[in-house]
Design goal:
alpha/beta; nine-stranded mixed β-sheet; 11 helices; disordered C terminus
Amino acid sequence: MNISVVICAYTERRWDDILAAVTSVRAQRHAPHEIILVVDHNPALRDRLTAALRDLVVVPNTHARGLSGGKNTGVAAASGDVVAFLDDDAVAAPGWLAAFAKHYDDPAVAGVGGRTLALWPGSPSAAELRDPGHPLLNAAVPAECGRRPGWFPAEFDWTVGCTYEGMTPGPIRNLMGGNASFRREAFAVAGGFAEGIGRTFHRRPLGCEETEFCIRLRQRGPGAELVYDPDAVIWHRVPPERARFAYFRRRCYAEGLSKALVTRSVGAQDGLASERAHALRTLPRGVRRGLVRAARGEAAGLGRAAAITLGLAWTTWGYAVGAATVRRPPRRNAAMAEARR
């Protein structure tokens, strides 16, 4: 199984992170077919990467500025049977691609996603993680590291791009975009990532481009199966500013806005099915658990219970605002328009 790995980059401030991500892909037990670096409208960074990484495919984002456009560019440049995506501030465990590859023996599987663990503040630096033999990357039992804020609930780890409490191995509605892979033909079925949904240089941290894509893929190919495999492990860096409550609140509100765009594109039934289950089952359990811990003397338990409650409220508010203001579906790229014909 040939797997092309796409890494989207946009700023030289993440130079060491980008090199660490590339090094981790090079060290995979299942060797990548190719590594494609997509540079988002930053010629200086593109030239620097081209000079430093001559054995890689380095291409400029030829679509709209932002993560969705970068991914669409990467897909167009890829020649592997499968296209995998890794964030530019993440590193992959050596068995990451092997865990993806084993699922593609089943022709019904259109995509596979993995477990994303947090590199909280205080974790090893990107320079340290450029060593493929680093103990973190080769741990028998992978785990997050660094200093997780005591109030930060695991049920909301999605706000920092990580796997969250409530995800279970097996079939899943949608994969998380920074740790995902798809058969290349899936893009011919569903088109590309919607460029009016994912992260751009907008002041709000919008997201959900992978959610909308996965739902659209399954709507257009009803037999397509998406799988979550926790053995496909990566670590995603959480900068100090994203470990603060102010960012948590903004991210929750932005997620609500993004979900309004998703439901406008794919419908509320599919667009909110997983969110309803998470809100009605997982979050109440998290609140109860936090309150029990607080009653036993762990003050942070009360903070987690409050963060879950406030996070749900801010996400719901963002969705309500988004639903009230969205007037037309997100702009699609040419490949998506062609797929509709």
